[in-house]
């Protein structure tokens, strides 16, 4: 297991960034971490990297406690927001620094990537473009040869072409080296291209966690004449109503046999946005669903128009 968290909570003074997070990320997967600003994504990644310690609960990464010693640190690569590099150091200086700080450093891999990317080893990092800085930071993370690579919004400031190149390089590295990746991003379309698992954080809590294909298979959009009830076994994630029509996103493993419903498939973006929506008090008759417990289940949201 790459990451295992149980009742993980992190507070900064009076502000709670994460609340009781419980999740499992299997080894060897590319996991997308998504949520609104302030959801706790950077906090979770910093805890996994050993940059922060929990207020309560536990987190285990690659079989050990994050930041517990040199052996544990070699297992995890971490690229913080905005792909930080040292502006005054050259590309070659970065590679030398990486070799000095990491016992498992793969110098051949680092130099081969720098050459393939067309980076001038004599160029100071502060003079590189945003895409080049991101690629340099990724090179540093990969050449460490970690078991798990944590990337916090690595492509947020890049143009579409630079994002595509970065993600393509990342996927090639995943296939070649077999490492696991947890990738935080607001850009769901990018996550859909590269991730096989997804975690949705909202309000410091895990709202959804699982395999992308499996989650899409059990979520559906239902449209039909307005009604105030559903058969048992269908958990309502969101509901919108007009005077005559109801449109629901539901989670169910059972077939939907009611001919009054038009059943539609969801994209990953549809699913993420549904679980990012904050719960709200209903303004009219409720659409009832059974009590739902466990990861990825929460009270129904009803929007009445």
How are the SSEs placed, and which strands pair?
Elements: E1 3-12, E2 15-25, E3 30-34, H1 41-49, E4 56-61, H2 70-73, E5 76-79, H3 91-101, H4 107-117, H5 130-143, E6 148-152, H6 160-177, E7 180-184, H7 188-194, E8 197-202, E9 205-211, H8 212-218, E10 219-225, E11 235-241, E12 245-251, E13 262-264, H9 268-276, E14 301-304
Parallel strand pairs: 3-7, 3-8, 5-6, 6-7, 11-14
Antiparallel strand pairs: 1-2, 1-4, 8-9, 10-12, 10-13, 11-12
Helix pairs in contact: 4-5, 5-6
Keywords: ATP-binding, Nucleotide-binding, Transport
Organism: Nonomuraea salmonea
Domain ABC transporter: 3-228
Question: What does the model show?
Answer:
The structure is a single chain. By secondary structure, the protein is an alpha/beta fold. It has 2 domains: 3-203, P-loop containing nucleotide triphosphate hydrolases (Rossmann fold), CATH 3.40.50.300; 214-304, no CATH class. It is 30% helix and 29% strand. It is built from 9 helices and 14 strands. The chain has a 6-stranded mixed beta sheet with strand order 5-6-7-3-8-9, with helices on both faces. The protein has a 5-stranded mixed beta sheet with strand order 13-10-12-11-14. Helix 4 (107-117) packs antiparallel against helix 5 and helix 5 runs parallel beside helix 6. Residues 280-305 have low confidence and may be disordered. Residues 281-305 are annotated as: Disordered. InterPro entries: AAA+_ATPase, ABC_transporter-like_ATP-bd, ABC_Transporter_VariousFunc, P-loop_NTPase.
């Amino acid at each position: 297991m790459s990451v295992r968290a149980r009742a993980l909570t992190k507070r900064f003074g009076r502000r709670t960034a994460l609340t009781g997070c419980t999740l499992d990320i299997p080894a060897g997967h590319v996991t997308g971490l998504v949520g609104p600003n302030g959801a706790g994504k950077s906090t979770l990644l910093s805890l996994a990297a050993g940059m922060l310690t929990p207020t309560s609960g536990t987190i285990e990464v690659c079989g050990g406690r994050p930041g517990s010693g040199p052996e544990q640190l070699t297992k995890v690569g971490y690229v913080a927001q905005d792909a930080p590099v040292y502006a005054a150091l050259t590309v070659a200086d970065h590679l030398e620094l990486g070799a000095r700080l990491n016992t498992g450093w793969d110098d051949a891999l680092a130099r081969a990537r720098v050459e393939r990317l067309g980076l001038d080893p004599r160029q100071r990092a502060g003079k590189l473009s945003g895409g080049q800085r991101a690629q340099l930071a990724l090179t540093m993370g990969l050449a460490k040869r970690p078991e798990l690579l944590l990337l916090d919004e690595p492509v947020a400031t890049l143009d579409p072409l630079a994002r595509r190149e970065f993600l393509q390089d990342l996927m090639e590295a995943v296939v070649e080296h077999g490492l696991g990746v947890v990738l935080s991003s607001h850009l769901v379309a990018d996550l859909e291209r590269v991730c096989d698992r997804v975690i949705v954080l909202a309000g410091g809590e895990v709202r959804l966690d699982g395999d992308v294909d499996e989650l899409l298979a059990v979520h559906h959009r239902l449209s039909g004449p307005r009604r105030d009830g559903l058969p048992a076994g269908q958990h309502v994630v969101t509901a919108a109503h007009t005077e005559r029509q109801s449109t629901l996103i539901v989670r169910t493993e059972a077939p939907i046999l009611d001919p009054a419903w038009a059943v539609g498939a969801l994209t990953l973006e549809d699913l993420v946005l549904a679980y990012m929506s904050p719960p709200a008090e209903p303004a009219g008759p409720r659409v009832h669903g059974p009590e739902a417990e466990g990861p990825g289940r929460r009270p129904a949201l009803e929007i009445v128009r």
